[in-house]
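Sample log: LRP1B protein.
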Amino acid sequence: KLFFTDYGNTAKVERCDMDGMNRTWIVHSKIEQPTALALDLINKYVYWVDIYLDSVEVVDYQGRKRHTVIKGRQIRHLHGLAVFENYLYTVNSDNLSVLRINRYNGTDVQSLAKLDNAKEIHVYQKRIQTAVRSHACEVDPYGMPGGCSHICLLSSNYKARTCRCRTGFILGNDGKSCK
């Protein structure tokens, strides 16, 4: 699944399949300007920062179990969001600091470092990388991902895929080749 935020006409957090199909709103009320988003892949939670409401909130992948992790002036101007173990990590662009927030109680907020101009933060750790199983976009014997001549996108599950073409090309009748 692909998760993303949108604060156009109606602010929301959404999810869809990797090929853009099955688009679903998972949060669309009591939300104003959702920006940064992070996933807890193990427990299947979606965290986001709302810069208008000065809050960090969380829901499960279906939009249930919503609650506010932290709210208030101390978390204004947040950019980027990452989850690792018991904490959320984010960047405060107002004072250029990296913050660590306890994601269970929100009261434990620590400034870890100062940075010159950061807007994103990512955690890279072997334990949070999901195991890769064989999937529909694996390279075939001819060197083409999922048998697609240009782009292979996973669909509703790891066994299904959709082929797409680069700009200026049209997908052929076979659903794999681009012309």
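Observation: The two ends are 28 Å apart (CA to CA).
Observation: Residues 169 and 179 are 5 Å apart (CA to CA).
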